[in-house]
Write a structure and sequence with these properties.
single chain; mainly beta; AttH-like fold; eleven-stranded antiparallel sheet; ten-stranded antiparallel sheet; about 60% strand
């Protein structure tokens, strides 16, 4: 996904933030062990780790619901406890946006069979099995969801699976960009409907504390099978640090793109949060000349700000529709996340 800044009030600790191979990637730099899948789907003993899902849930009669669902695992050095924070956002076809948070503390990191994870926090559950099968269930406002997700492509390893965020530290990072979804969504009215769609999983972990960075981030799934991850990193003054992206066209090897190989910029459309006063851009343009791609991303729900109650965390996360900027045709779907300092207008 992305990184998310976590402020745990119990301590002074601040942390920011199907096909698979069983072979490790080439030995990475920094003296760290290589990323190995599917075993690295399981929890690690690092300061920060997260499992992030997003999904467009479709129902022929009701329309499209946009969901993001993430669990953060954070070490608390002062007490040797492990904190689990689950954050969920759901947008409805009627432009409503609901969020939920849950938190749980454990005395140790749970042990699972390599390649598996299984987290229960309150009435919510997140499971993964061998990088292939996943299950999500939870409640947001009066909505409930139960979803089965199946990976249909090999993972994307960004920068070979490990990235240097400079002062923020080193992070492992990979994506499972195509998850077929089937399941049920219970509406606020109590009606239970079938949904299907396409999901995305981001996994990051490491001994890093990127509290000093902000970012614009996007996941894009095109109808022709192309998958893209876009990340623009900034320092806390809003000054650029690094831009990078990963693209894979159907049936081809992935390509890691550096800042001079693509342009990702916001349009003029924006929404101001009545809670925080922050102006969030709600339209973006992506150009990748080498791939002859010119795309426009438009938010499905401008009011998609997440403001934490249990944790003082604020960010904007919205499903987007993806258009061919040349002819205006719909060519895919995605998500955009903006994590900026309060009041930032970029």
């Amino acid at each position: 996904m992305k990184l998310l800044q976590l402020v745990i009030p119990i301590t002074v600790l601040v942390l920011l933030s199907a096909c698979q191979t069983t072979n490790p990637t080439p030995t990475p730099p920094f003296g760290l062990p290589p990323l190995t899948l599917p075993s690295d789907e399981s929890p690690h003993n690092y300061l920060a780790e997260w499992w992030y899902f997003n999904a467009h849930l479709e129902n022929e009669e009701k329309g499209t619901f946009a969901l993001h669902d993430v669990i953060f695992q954070v070490q608390e050095p002062s007490s040797n406890r492990t904190m689990y924070v689950r954050q969920v956002g759901l947008s409805t076809p009627e432009q409503d946006h609901f969020t939920s948070e849950r938190i749980r503390a454990t005395s140790s990191i749970p042990t699972f069979a390599p390649g598996n994870f299984d987290f229960t926090i309150g009435d919510s559950k997140m499971q993964g099995t061998q990088g292939r099968h996943y299950f999500l269930s939870g409640t947001v406002n009066k909505y409930k969801y139960e979803l089965k997700l199946t990976a249909t492509t090999s993972p994307l390893l960004h920068g070979g699976g490990i990235l240097d965020y400079e002062d923020a530290g080193i992070t492992y990072y990979y994506t499972r960009p195509r998850l077929d979804i089937e399941g049920f969504l219970t509406l606020a009215s109590g009606e239970k409907i079938k949904v299907d769609g396409l999901g995305w999983l981001d996994k990051q972990w490491g001994d890093f504390q990127p509290v000093a960075v902000e970012w614009d981030w996007a996941s894009i799934q095109l109808n022709d099978g192309t998958d893209l991850m876009i990340s623009l990193l900034y320092n806390r003054n809003g000054e650029p640090i690094e831009n990078y992206a990963t693209i894979r066209k159907a049936g081809q090897d992935p390509k890691f793109l550096t800042r001079d190989q693509f342009i990702f910029k916001s349009g003029n459309e924006e929404w101001q949060s009545p809670k925080t006063g922050t102006f969030y851009r709600t339209e973006w343009y992506l150009d990748i000349p080498s791939e002859k791609l010119q795309l426009t991303l438009i938010s499905l729900n401008q009011t998609s700000e997440f403001t934490g109650n249990l944790l003082p965390v604020t960010y904007w996360e919205s499903g987007v529709k993806v258009l061919n900027r040349v002819n205006g045709e719909s060519v895919g779907q995605g998500f955009v996340e903006l994590n900026w300092a309060p009041g930032r207008n970029r």
